[in-house]
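Title: Prediction job returns without error message
Component: structure pipeline
Severity: low
Priority: P3
Assignee: unassigned

Description:
Job completed but the reporter wants confirmation the result is attached to the right record. Sequence as submitted:
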Amino acid sequence: MSGSTLLQIDFFDAFAVWRRNYDVNLRLWKAEVLPPLLEPAVSILAFGWGIGSLIAAKVTGIPYLMFVGAGILVVTGLVRAILECTYGAYFRMVYQSTYDAILSTPIGVASLGAGEILWAASKAAFDSLLIMVILLLFDILHSPMSVLIPVVIMVGATGLAAVAFAYTASISSIYQYNYFIGVAFSSLWICGAYFPVDRLPLVLQYLSWALPITSVVDLSRDLMTGRLDSWSMLEAAWIIVSALLAGEIALRRLSKRMYQ
């Protein structure tokens, strides 16, 4: 396959795939809305008030409740994207034959993959909006720049969803997700969501900053507190570049699977 697969995307077709998933989830909205609200609310209580009550000093210059609130906000959205492009995508591709049905129309495989990835990213952004309402109730959002957090999460979720989607397109059994989920969820513990990255051993610090997830968490926290600087711009660039690279790999893997 020559050239970039990203250039083969027809965004009208990708939107049609996105809209198909939207219509399906609209009928299931009651089951889709409650989990994103319940889990982060409990996490904020447990980490922010529970562990936070044991931490007298501020963490990176802000109260621990605010510090961990940003982490929970990002992690919850990114987990949503992971699940959508792993189990959700696998069921549509293998068990429901939804992809075969879509590809029998003029929609191409690149547009199909793009629609799936963007749908997962959209769910992450929507969940972040719901969680931000909870954070407002806890008086955690103190900067007007917080309105940009869902955008950062959506771009970051695009990259992570693409990684998950590339793995989905590469496996032959749903049980193989045990490996991916184990690695993906473990990485969420070293991305600076619950404690500062500089508390890790130096090797893990390098690994953490190599993960775009860490930049998503840190940039979202900067927006929440209004503390943007030149490092924040570098993080934004890394999030975008990594999302494009992951998207290219994911669409190539899907093309290979669907056309083999």
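Comment from assignee: result matches the submitted record. The two ends are 13 Å apart (CA to CA).
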